[in-house]
């Protein structure tokens, strides 16, 4: 359907999901280039760096020089055309999922070499609304949560390595799990359920670990 530019590795393009609007939603990591044929009506526009202070890059140069918008979600029609930049400002979400309300969510990763710095962002569940920029920038350029034009996470999951994400709808689990998001963590080998609670125009969440195993490097799941 499309050819992606930029990295094709661990921070390249990842999952595809079908949206309630019958469009295909694709999530890409922060080493992927934004498509050069974006529709002029894309919800995310005018993204920039806007740094008042000099940036401190990663000490090993990982991601150095990569500019906004970071990881992103693009929606396309059934033929892979009419590309629209839907949401941006993530690091490297592998999985995205629509909940039963038809709202899109991502499970974004942290940056391990940021541990202990003021700009560290834990792994998080993000509500990916149309036109949102979640503020991931390389090095010390990450937006604080209090920025008015950024969206805070639904819930922070902590240290980990997020991979797959799915809605629990359609499982044989009790109803509360069918309304939850099911997420995988590769490094700790755990399956989590994120129980969503509506708050204003968005959500808050509670994380429950369903199982974990030290030798289970979980990558993806289907319901």
Kindly name the structural category. mainly beta
Contiguous low-pLDDT stretches (5 residues minimum) are: none
Strand count: 13
Q: How many distinct helices?
A: 1
Principal-axes shape call: globular
- N-to-C series of helices and strands: EEEEEEEEEEHEEE
Using only CA atoms, what is the Rg?
17 Å
Gap from first CA to last CA: 25 Å
Output mean pLDDT: 94
The residue fraction in helices comes out at under 10%
Our estimate of the beta-strand percent is 25-35%
Largest sheet: 5 strands, mixed
Spatial order of the strands forming the largest sheet: 1-2-3-4-8
Give descriptors for this structure.
223 residues, mainly beta, five-stranded mixed beta sheet, four-stranded antiparallel beta sheet, 1 helix, 2% helix, globular
Q: Could you explain how this protein is built, in words?
A:
With 223 residues, the chain is an all-beta fold. The chain is 2% helix and 34% strand. It is built from one helix and 13 strands. A hairpin with a 5-residue loop joins strand 1 and strand 2. The longest helix has 4 residues.
Question: Could you provide a short overview of the structure?
Answer:
A hairpin with a 5-residue loop joins strand 1 (13-18) and strand 2 (24-28).
């Amino acid at each position: 359907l499309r050819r992606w530019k930029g990295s094709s590795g661990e921070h390249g393009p990842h999952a595809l999901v079908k949206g309630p609007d019958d469009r295909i939603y694709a999530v890409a990591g922060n080493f992927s280039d934004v498509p050069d044929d974006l529709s002029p009506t894309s919800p995310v526009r005018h993204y920039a760096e806007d740094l008042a202070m000099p940036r401190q890059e990663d000490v090993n140069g990982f991601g150095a020089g990569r500019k906004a918008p970071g990881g992103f979600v693009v929606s396309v029609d059934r033929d892979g055309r009419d590309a629209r930049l839907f949401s941006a400002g993530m690091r490297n979400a592998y999985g995205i999922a629509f909940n039963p309300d038809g709202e899109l969510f991502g499970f974004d990763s942290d940056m391990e070499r940021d541990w202990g710095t003021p700009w560290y962002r834990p792994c998080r569940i993000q509500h990916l609304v149309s036109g949102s920029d979640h503020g991931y920038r390389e090095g010390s350029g990450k937006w604080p949560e209090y920025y008015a034009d950024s969206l805070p996470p639904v819930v922070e999951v902590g240290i980990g390595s997020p991979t797959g994400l799915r809605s629990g709808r359609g499982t044989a689990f009790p109803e509360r799990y069918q309304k939850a998001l099911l997420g995988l963590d590769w490094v700790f080998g755990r399956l989590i359920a994120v129980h969503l609670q509506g708050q204003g125009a968005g959500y808050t969440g509670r994380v429950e670990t369903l199982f974990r195993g030290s030798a289970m490097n979980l990558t993806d799941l289907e319901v």
